UniProtKB/TrEMBL annotation, chain A:
Its main location: membrane. Pfam families: BPD_transp_2. GO terms for cellular component: plasma membrane. GO terms for molecular function: transmembrane transporter activity. Residues 1-25 are annotated as: Disordered. It comes from Micromonospora musae. It is a multi-pass membrane protein. This is ABC transporter permease. The chain crosses the membrane at residues 38-56, 76-96, 125-148, 155-182, 202-222, 251-269, 289-317. InterPro entries: ABC_transp_permease. CDD domains: TM_PBP1_transp_AraH_like.
UniProtKB/TrEMBL annotation, chain B:
This is Sugar ABC transporter ATP-binding protein. Residues 7-243, 260-507 form the ABC transporter domain. It comes from Micromonospora musae. It is found in: Cell membrane. One of its GO terms (molecular function) is ATP binding.
Automatic annotation (TrEMBL), chain C:
Belongs to the bacterial solute-binding protein 2 family. It comes from Micromonospora musae. Residues 1-23 form the signal peptide. Residues 48-301 form the Periplasmic binding protein domain. The lineage of its organism: Bacteria, Bacillati, Actinomycetota, Actinomycetes, Micromonosporales. InterPro entries: Peripla_BP_I, SBP_2_dom. This is ABC transporter substrate-binding protein. SUPFAM superfamilies: Periplasmic binding protein-like I (SSF53822). Keywords: Signal.
Amino acid sequence: MTPPNPTAVEEAPAGTPPPRRRPSLRLPRDRHALVDNFFRFQSLFGLVAVFLIAIAVSPVRNGENIFLSSGNLANIVRAVSEIGIIAVGMTFVILIGGIDLSVGAVLGLAAVGSATLMVDSGMGILPTVLIVLLIGTAFGATQGAIVARIGIQSFIVTLAGLQAARGIARMWSGGLGVPIAYGDGPKEAPEAFSLLSGSINGVLPVPAVLFIAIGIGALLVLRSTAFARHVYAIGGNEKAARLSGVPVRRVRITVFAISGLLAALAGIIHAGQLNQGSPNDGSGYELDAIAAVVIGGTSLAGGSGSMGGTIAGALLLGILNNILALNNIDANVQLVVKGLVIVAAAALQKLRPRIS
Amino acid sequence: MTERPLVRMTGIGKRFGGVQACRDIDLTIAAGEVHALLGENGAGKSTLINILSGVITDYDGTIEVDGRPVSFGGPVDAQRAGIATIHQELDLVAGLSIAENMFLGREPRTRLGGVDIRRMRRQAAEHLRTLGADLDPRRLVGSLRVGEQQLVEIGRALSLDARVLIMDEPTAALADAEVERLFETIKELRRAGVGIVYISHRMAELEVIADRATVLRNGGLAGTVDPRTASRDEIIQLMVGRSVDALFGEGRNEPGKVLLDVRNLAVTPRRPTPGRTEPAGVDLTVRTGEIVGLAGLMGAGRTELLETLFGAGGSGRRSGQMTIDGRPYGPHGPRAALARGVAFVPEDRRGAGLMLEHSVAENVVLSALATLTTLGVVRRQAVRRTVAEQLTALAVKAASPAVAAATLSGGNQQKVVFAKQLLTQPRLLLLDEPTRGVDIGAKAEIYRLLHRLADAGMAILLASSELPELLSLCDRVVVLHRGRTVATLPRASATQQAILAAANGDDAKETR
Amino acid sequence: MRYARRAVAVLALTVLATTTACSVEKAGDGNGGTDAAAECGSGKEFLIGMSQANNAEPYRQVMNDDVSNAAKDVPGFKVVVSDAAQDNSKQVADVENFISQGINLLIISPNEAKPLTAVVKKAYDQGIPVIVLDRKVEGDAYTAFIGGDNVAIGKAAGEYYAKTLLPQGGKVVEISGLPGSTPAAERAQGFREGVASNPQIQIVASQTAEWLREKGQSVMDAMLKANPDINAVYAHNDPMAEGAYLAAKAAGKESTIKFTGIDALPVPSGGIKAVEQGRLQATFQYPTGGREAIDMAKKILVDCQKDVPKTTTLGTTQITKDNAAQVYTQLGGKQ
């Protein structure tokens, strides 16, 4: 009584899909899996490829490959750590089909907050960090609530949030960067805060370790929690998710809160690395973070993507920046190259067989 | 029909990789004929019409139009040759007017090169009149009902001077009254000498409208019959290759106590949404073990009622009483409904039922994640086991639980939606057009499933546009008209005529 | 799948273990002094890293050009320029990359003082001579600072206002540079010192336009609404003064209001040309120090001079219609 042909070639409605759109169905299973895995770990392969290219083209000094020197590798991860942490939060937002443009401004706000609370208000590190993280989380959650409850597109809400966060940061800091001096006296921050700019055993920069730890944490969350399934479901088909009993609003708000929280954390690290909290810091970081997510293979339409991809994407951007700089490529040419890489990554996604 | 056919397809074959989609198929279409194309999903219908409409350009065999061999380089060539296709999912732009849609891409020009809007509207109005459709060509297509949109598509085909019209499941989205009207239009076209290829899953329609039926099975030709004389069983046997037991179920055991009781339910929307008919005085009860049908014309408010019962309707003030098990019931959202044991299988399974790009397994467990997690972490083993159980229980045909839901056939997709909702262990199952776009084999399976569930004590409320389905499946049929209950017909007194009369708002006989 | 999960867990534990087991060292202590400085002397090749804060500012572009052009005249000098695009973090990374590359000397025009102090110290501690241009860093971990004296320039402008431009006094609005940047603060401070001798001059408003011409225009629009009777506009740089001029012109007030700027870049769009063409009354040269930096680099690297002056303050030139054309040629401006 059942259709005898489970590999039905034509269950899709006529006309819309020219059949050649799905070449994957014709492949034998193992080769199919191979192709699928290539696209799934596209960013990882990209990362390895860029890494190998970087080794090949790196200048060599006194017989040492400059790119591979431990100091340089540490610098790369340190340099992408803030963008990377933001991109981790951005991945959640993009997975539900949203976007968060406010993260760079929230980073600036958090940097100002860290500096002001410690230097001007004389607070300790723990209360400062907690308050700043709370501010970031609340800011993100508010944006999420506006998106979820009123139904305004996240692009617009967070564009407004960007402006608001910058404004608050400027008001709070009086428009000036708040320098952080260390010591026990008044108007001085606790010495321990400067550890954020240090490294473990002189090798692993602290921000890099934080980035990797958060990245792995988020990767585990995204792999194995019900929350993550809900995130994917909303991005895949919001209506279906709602009708399936997914708490769409709550998940939305949580996702934006996570993004705000991580942007604030990046802001604290930023302040610690630069010994200053400036309201202008972090401008344009949202675009770098989005680029990392996109290079990582997460679809801006939501519903598909991975945290591993984002981490790889961030590192790839970092390596790219580094190797271009080490070879003294003109700054303007660097911008063009970065643009091309983003388009190439997105184009590669398009080649991916749509149905796995 | 003595002269040579408009189109003659000979020895058509097409292979996709390892799958032989079509094999040595001959098909002729004569002027003024309605030629039905039958077959289960995967039988080769879509491939065949894709070849005829120029979507597929590399195939075996020959096509002749008016006796001359042709070779289409694309859909445009086919259109030039007078072959137009109306797809199941209509190719209209919602944001443009009827006239703009009809002439999309070939708008009449003024001497200055601008679009000659007046001429466009005039011609569009003419075509609509030919079809007996009383529509203002300036209206936006997005504001039309599906049946009206279909008329626009047909109008576009007419404006192309189409002599062959391929219609892919044209009645799938239509209510019965609209089907009537479509048939009138088809008869008009037939009189005008247009050859029509008509694809449908609905047997009853074919008896009314088709002159000839070609049945495909597994990519090959299974036979050609005259649907006016051939029995349904005969046709179904051609389609599935086996003889058919009774497709439709028998009466079943006695229903139990009242589970859902709805009294005078009405929703006053905060902002009226065009095209929605909110409940405006609904009375109904559903008992455990009972299947209650919801009948009504397009726009009678069946979907809206089910959504309201599931807490997924439009925002607005709700009045009247709803109880489940005698306790007040008024869900704020799907979550609350699911918590009270109410599950919903929506009409639009691609748009609202499934995450098409996600795996079958991910779809199946979505509703029931809470029972499959420890401290928020999904238990993979449990998920794997549950998915396997559900797929077996519902006989879902999928290469593996890891394939994307989109790769499944319509019937199997529907079963996945069922599996997802059944995992929540509902006591009341709300179904909106559960067999739309599902082939006859899968349909039968779904009917059997519903019987099994009802026998196990589940209460089922089912909305359908197919009257035979309601009549054979349901213990009672509740008929809606403009959001109100106008009749409740027990199985014994429910007939097509009685339901249609009530649905059209004629004197409703309240029987219970 | 289970394997992958275990691998991740092990990785996480490793990270955790390293985090807890190891001491955390402060920045700069780590890569203790590999001596990056090559032996000085003539006839050798030297790689000079020029870390620019923001190429998008014409002033900084001219600075880059001055450095590159001057370096062409010194045999063996090769200059590589990086652009931080106004991002402190990027500039830190730029300098780190220079250190990795093994540059022989660093010229840096810092985006902001505090955030770049640490990385400049890191380079300096590794034995790389560091010449800081235009904006200072904190502390004294650098070889030399070359810059204009913004207070002096502001003061020169102020005195020009007090004695020449508005001897009878009047209402002045100030359009200031990026808040938090030293030159903005100093140009404001110097100006107030300069106009103090003429109590008739009132500074009625002060708004930031972040060094940008378009913001100068919008800020001036707003200030004109609030203070319709302005006599003069003191802008912290020429582009903002030009922006303000455009706003006044739109309001039909360009002839009643006087405009002055600072920087006097020898480029066609610069302040000198604006003075020559009569849009600005005056501008005050803010020297880039690019040529001077290469001179000093030559002393350090080629001439092996050990004690270069820690601070070099460059003077300013007042440019009015009288000397505009002449100064333009003198500074090597393109016609």
